[in-house]
Amino acid sequence: MRAIWNEFTMLDDLSETIDLGTLNQWFCIGQVDDISPDGDVTMLLGTQIYLVRDGDDIRVSAQGRTLPTQLRYGYIWTSLGAPKGDVFDIPETIETDRRYVPCGAIRVAAAGPRVVENFLDMAHFPFVHTDILGSEPHTEVLTYKAEIRRDVDEVWATDCKFTQPKAALSAEGAIETEYMYRVTTPFAAVLYKTCPVASERWDVIALFVQPMQPGLCRAHPVMFLIDDGARDADLISFQQVIFLQDRIILENQRPVLLPIEPRIETPTRADAISIAYRRWLKEKGCVYGTSAGPKADAA
Q: Where do the Vanillate O-demethylase oxygenase-like C-terminal catalytic domain residues begin and end (predicted)?
């Protein structure tokens, strides 16, 4: 379903404190099925957001104003600004043999861009996800290609390979896993990875980040898998174990906000996608949750 509620005037007071590059993005704020019949309240960019069911529609508002709303991938998307176009497309999601597995909402005391960047990072696999996504001494990240694709305004990394002891719940033993990363918006990324049960296709894992405050967010991971054997509960548990391991690292990372100026953090060859992502954010003027944006209390 595309746009369902689109009457909106920009919240002028926010535009004075939050960059337009951020305000004009679409943001995931929750799973459709999780909305209470009595309505819900959440937060986006320091602003309270109200969600109310209106028949088959969901009305989203802030400060007494109706916000633009779209339903995509089983989630509610909204904006505090004036986004151009629809929520990005993930073509694989319409394939009828894929499993749709939403993995809940995870609150993370970290900046949204830090969460996205962590999702893109292969170097931490052996140390944070030991014996699942990586293992020692196999720690090398092979050279891969990272680029900003100007025609679609996205960041991509291709030719990524990593030997993984347990690449997916369906994997039987270690396999060399191939990855592609796609950053579709400053707060959303999609991972395509080798499917253990269908080598000619990709499993798809998306991460939609909801920045609540500069140093606080909710992460919404969702999987679109070629897997007809596992129980949903087992698939969700596998993914949540990985993300909760990440959360420990993210919540202890300093500085809290993502540096986007060169030389503040020393990159390595494995950081090519992170370098492209930071450059892209700076070019777009999308600096919420970065060292150039509003400051987090813990920063």
A: 112-283
Query: Does residue 294 form part of some domain?
Result: no
> By three-state DSSP, how is residue 171 classified?
coil
Total tally of structural domains belonging to the chain: 2
Report how far Cα 26 is from the mean position of its chain's Cα atoms: 12
The whole domain housing 53 covers 3-78
**What share of residues in the chain are helix, strand, coil (percent, to 5)?**
20, 35, 45
* 43 and 152 part of one domain: no
**Do both 167 and 39 map to the same domain?**
no
Q: What is the DSSP letter of 130?
A: B
Per residue in 147-174, pLDDT (tens digit) is 999 999 999 999 988 676 644 554 555 5
DSSP 33: G
The DSSP code for 283 is H
In a domain, 205, yes or no: yes
CA distances from 13 to 17, 36, 63, 195, 215 (A): 7, 29, 11, 47, 21
CA dihedral angle for residue 182, residue 185, residue 189, residue 194, rounded to 10 degrees: -20
**What pLDDT, in 10s, does the model give residues 53-64?**
877 789 999 999
Whether 244 maps to a domain, the answer reads yes
